[in-house]
Structures are given as structure tokens and as C-alpha cells.
């Protein structure tokens, strides 16, 4: 009888302990959510019409949060489409990695080998030619943009947008024939969407397929991203979130971008992209390889910026900025964590603020995981 009572008491204790642990775990999950939302709320205070969406991937677990209200009264959700601008470059880098795996291109070969219609004698300086390594680390010597320059940008969004929207593929190759390199390839860093677009055109040449189809075949079909697309000018009114700059709505620029910044997506699909970036796919591993190191712990992979935030831990990251949208993507391969943030506001300080939020959310997640581990 005493033995039976002892067993019953023990069972009750175990059940009670499990309930307490479950309650604590639930509390910590709520705490992670509240901390994450607090970071976003602070960011969007006093910005009417601004929205923010965030996706956090932790191995098999995902967390998505949305805050703010658009000017039309809509609230964002996992289906809200955003321009992701230069985060597109990470997709381009992944297709380059696949092309290397397929034997279509070589990392350190003269890119003129892949440009069949012109010798492009101007694409070298001091006997140093441009390579895909240079394009993916922004050390090719090519300028940032062809369609518009810094003077156009200084005149306002409308001027830059007009030039961008009237710029064609033919215009690009005409400019490529006469461009003068700013520096010897491989020596100096100069952020270049011209270089990223050139990588896209090279990929089209070696595969004899449109770049959008290559992204679909090699990435989004594998990751199951149904909503990551180059929509071009073929989209319904209101389909893509319109951005804000200096308090005013601005045009969507993704329609006139290419491999350097033309993709649009939603939280549902970008979450799948993060999971793909954390997978064991061989081309993903290739795309995470360090191509150069600017200073200790900081470098570049396949259009990814890299940083060793801890002695043995690397983060790969990229920001995106269209005329009215800002975004941030960070991948922590060893920890199997990824963070994406998008907002419909663009400005000089917006992307650094998104980076700061991402770093804090990462810290909150690590603390949450530690709490779970200690409770178990």
C-alpha cells in the first residue's frame, strides 16, 4: 500500500514538473515574441503608413511577425509582397555557384570568355582582366549603375526612376563596350549592380536560358518558393507593397532591375529561401565560401557579406534598398538560424537600423534557446 502511494506521489510530481517546464517554455516563447515585437515597434513609432515584417528561422522552427498599417488600412501578413532589391544578389550568387558545380563557368577565368559578341578590350586594366570572383566581391572596377549616376539621384527619385525605367538591355551592352574601369580588377571595393547584372547576363549566355528561369529552376523550385519572382511590369495594382521615402510614396523599381535587384517576394517564400540557405545542397555550400577578406573576420562570399561575430561563428548577410523599400537578410549557417526583415520605408539610416534589429533579435533567440535548454 505504501509503495503504491509512493509511486502515485512520484507520478504526480513528474506530471507537475512537466507542466511547470512546459509553462516556463511557453513563457520564454512569449518572451521571445514580445522582445522581437518590441524591437520592431520602437522602429516604426511615429511613421504613419509604415509596416514591418520579420521571419526568424531556427532549424525546424519558424517565427513570423508583422506590425504596422499601410496607408490604405491593410495590415501585412505572410502573403504581403515586398521588393527585396539587392538581396536578389544572393540568388544570383547561388546560381553562379550552381554554374561552377555544373562546369559552366570558372571563378577566376576572364569573363570576356563568356561574352561572345564583342572583345570588350576595355574590361581590363594594367593587364588584369575581370573575373566572376571580382564581380561577386565588388572589386571589378565597374561603376555602381549605368542607368543613372549620383547627380541624378541627388535630383530626386523621379529623375533616377525615369532614367531607370527607360534603360534597356541593349543600352547596358552599349555602355559596357565603352565603360572605363575605376580601378584595377581585384584591388579596390566599389559596390556595383552593373557587375551583378553582368554576372546575370553571363549565366544567361552559358546556359542559354533567361536568368529568371535559371533562378526558378535552380533555386525556387527546390526551395518551394512560389512567390519569389521577377514580376517585371506584369503585376496587378496593389500586388506589391508600395514604398515610402521622405514621407511620400515612390515608384516600384523592381520592374526595371535585373540580377542586381529585381526580385519580389513575401515572408512565406523568403522563409523557405532561408531554409534552403541552411540546407546541405552542394551549391549552397559553394556559395558560402569566402572569396576575399577585407580585414580580419570580414569578407565576401558569393555576393554575401561575411563577418565572424564569434571566433568560430560566421554570419552571411545582405541588405536590400529599392526606391521605397528596405530589407535585411542574415544567415548563421552553423547555428542553423536565419533572419529576414522588410519594411516599406527607404532612407539613409533605414538599412543600418534593420541590421541592428536583426542583431538584437538574434540575441533574443539565443537567450530563448538557452532558457529552453536549461529547463530541460
From TrEMBL:
Pfam families: Beta-lactamase (PF00144). Residues 1-25 form the signal peptide. Keywords: Signal. Transmembrane segments: none annotated. It comes from the Bacteria. The keyword Signal applies. Residues 53-352 form the Beta-lactamase-related domain. The keyword Methyltransferase does not apply. This is Beta-lactamase-related domain-containing protein. It comes from Pseudoalteromonas peptidolytica F12-50-A1.
Amino acid at each position: 500500500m505504501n509503495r503504491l502511494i509512493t509511486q502515485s506521489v512520484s507520478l504526480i510530481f513528474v506530471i507537475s514538473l512537466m507542466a511547470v517546464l512546459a509553462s516556463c517554455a511557453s513563457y520564454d516563447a512569449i518572451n521571445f515574441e514580445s522582445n522581437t515585437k518590441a524591437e520592431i515597434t520602437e522602429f516604426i513609432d511615429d511613421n504613419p503608413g509604415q509596416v514591418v515584417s520579420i521571419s526568424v528561422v531556427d532549424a525546424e522552427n519558424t517565427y513570423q511577425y508583422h506590425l504596422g498599417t499601410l496607408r490604405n488600412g491593410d495590415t501585412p501578413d505572410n502573403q504581403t509582397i515586398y521588393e527585396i532589391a539587392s538581396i536578389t544578389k544572393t540568388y544570383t550568387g547561388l546560381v553562379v555557384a550552381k554554374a561552377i558545380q555544373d562546369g559552366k563557368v570558372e571563378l577566376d577565368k576572364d569573363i570576356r570568355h563568356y561574352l561572345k559578341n564583342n572583345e570588350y578590350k576595355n574590361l581590363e586594366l594594367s593587364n588584369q582582366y575581370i573575373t566572376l570572383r571580382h564581380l561577386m566581391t565588388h572589386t571589378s572596377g565597374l561603376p555602381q549603375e549605368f542607368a543613372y549616376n549620383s547627380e541624378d539621384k541627388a535630383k530626386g527619385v523621379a529623375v533616377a526612376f525615369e532614367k531607370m525605367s527607360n534603360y534597356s538591355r541593349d543600352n547596358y551592352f552599349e555602355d559596357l563596350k565603352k565603360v572605363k574601369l575605376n580601378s584595377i580588377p581585384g584591388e579596390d571595393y566599389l559596390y556595383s549592380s552593373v557587375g551583378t547584372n553582368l554576372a546575370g547576363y553571363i549565366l544567361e549566355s552559358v546556359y542559354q536560358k533567361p536568368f529568371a528561369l535559371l533562378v526558378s529552376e535552380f533555386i525556387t523550385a527546390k526551395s518551394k518558393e512560389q512567390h519569389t519572382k521577377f514580376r517585371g511590369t506584369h503585376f496587378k495594382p496593389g500586388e506589391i507593397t508600395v514604398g515610402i521615402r521622405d514621407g511620400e510614396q515612390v515608384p516600384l523599381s523592381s520592374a526595371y532591375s535585373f540580377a542586381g535587384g529585381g526580385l519580389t517576394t513575401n515572408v512565406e517564400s523568403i522563409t523557405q529561401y532561408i531554409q534552403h540557405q541552411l540546407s546541405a545542397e552542394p551549391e549552397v555550400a559553394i556559395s558560402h565560401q569566402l572569396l576575399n577578406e577585407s580585414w580580419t573576420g570580414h569578407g565576401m562570399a558569393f555576393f554575401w557579406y561575411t563577418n565572424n561575430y564569434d571566433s568560430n561563428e560566421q554570419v552571411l548577410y545582405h541588405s536590400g534598398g529599392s526606391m521605397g523599400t528596405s530589407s535585411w537578410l542574415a544567415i548563421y549557417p552553423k547555428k542553423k538560424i536565419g533572419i529576414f526583415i522588410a519594411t516599406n520605408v527607404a532612407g539613409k539610416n533605414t538599412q543600418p537600423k534593420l541590421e541592428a534589429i536583426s542583431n538584437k533579435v538574434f540575441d533574443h533567440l539565443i537567450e530563448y534557446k538557452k532558457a529552453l535548454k536549461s529547463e530541460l
